[in-house]
Amino acid sequence: MRILPLLFVLAAAPALGAPTCPAPLHAGASDLGLASFREDDKVSGAAIDVVRELARRTNCPLDISWYPRARLWAEYANGRINLTASSARSAERDRLGQFVPFVTTRFDLVLSHRVAGRYKSLAEFVAHGSARLNLVRGILYTAEVEAQVERLRAQGRVEVVNDFDIAFRKMASKRAEATLAPMTIYSRYLQSAGLQEHVSVMPVAESAPVLAGAYFSRSGLPPAARKVFAEALLGMVTDGSVARIYGKYVGDANGRTLVPDHGRGIVSAYQPLP
C-alpha cells in the first residue's frame, strides 16, 4: 500500500496555483500612529496590514521587528531587515533599496490652543509665532518644510524627540506646544492623549502631499524578488485594497483621499530599477 506516503507528499506540496515565494520578508516597523503602532507587544496598523496582505499574496513568510524610527534605518542599512513600509522617498534611501509607493501623506501643523494664532504656512508660524516645534528623529520632510525648520532652529524653537508618542505626550502634559504630523499619526494620538479639544490642526502651504510606500532592500533581496513584490504591491493599489485597508483605520472617505484617483498617480510614479 502506497496510500499513506502519497498522502504525505500531497500534504507537503504547495497548493495548486499558489505563487512561489521569491524570498522571505523581514519587515521593520516603528511608531507611525494608525499606520504602524504597537500594543501589548503586537504590531498593528494600516501599513502593517498592507505588508501582511503583500506577504499573503506572494505566499511568503513574514516577520516584523519594532524599532525607534531612527534606528529602523540603521537596521535596514545593516541588512537585518529587508522591507520597510510607510516610508517617504529620499536619495539616501534609494541607495539602499527600491521604493514602491502605495499611498500619499501630508504633514499638518498640530498646535496647542494655549498658543494664540492660526497659520496658513510654516513661514507665518516662524515669523509671527513663538511656540517651539517638536520633531521626530528619522522623519523626512519636504525641502520647503526643512527650510522653515532651519529658520526655527536658528531661533531655538525646535526640539527633537524619538517618536510621535513622546511628542504628543509632551503636548498632553503641556511640555510642548506644536508638532508636524500626518492624519494617520495625529488621529491616533489626539484620541489616546485626550487632545481633541485642546489642539488645532492646520494644513500649511509648504507641506504638499507626497508619496509614501515600501522600500525593498537592494542587498537583501534579488532583483527578481523585488520585481514580484513591486508588482503585487502596485496591484493592491490598483484594485483598491490599499484604500480599503487604510479606510478601516481613518474612515472610508479618508482612505480614498490617501489613494487619490484610484491610485493611478501612485502607480504611474513608480520607477522600476534598470
Task: Provide the β-strand percentage band.
Answer: 15-25%
How many strands appear in the DSSP assignment? 12
Largest sheet: 5 strands, mixed
Total domains, how many? 2
Structural class, judged by helices and strands?
alpha/beta
Give the SSE order as H and E letters. Answer: HEEEHEHEHEEHEHEHEHEEHHHH
The CATH superfamily of the largest domain is known as Periplasmic binding protein-like II
Alpha carbon gyration radius? 21 Å
Annotated CATH topology of the largest domain: D-Maltodextrin-Binding Protein, domain 2
**What is the CATH level 1 assignment of the largest domain?**
Alpha Beta
Helix content: 40-55%
Task: Give an account of the 3D structure.
The protein is α/β, with parallel strands linked by helices. The protein folds into 2 domains: 21-104 and 210-269, 3-Layer(aba) Sandwich (D-Maltodextrin-Binding Protein, domain 2); 108-202, 3-Layer(aba) Sandwich (D-Maltodextrin-Binding Protein, domain 2), CATH 3.40.190. The protein has helices at 3-12, 46-58, 69-77, 91-96, 122-128, 143-154, 164-172, 183-192, 223-238, 241-250, 252-258, 264-269, and strands spanning 25-29, 37-39, 42-44, 62-66, 83-88, 97-105, 108-112, 133-136, 158-161, 178-181, 199-202, 210-217. The strands form 3 sheets. It has a 5-stranded mixed beta sheet with strand order 4-1-5-12-6, sandwiched between helices. Helix 2 packs antiparallel against helix 10 and helix 10 packs across helix 11. It is globular, with a radius of gyration of 21 Å. Mean pLDDT is 92; it is low at 1-16.
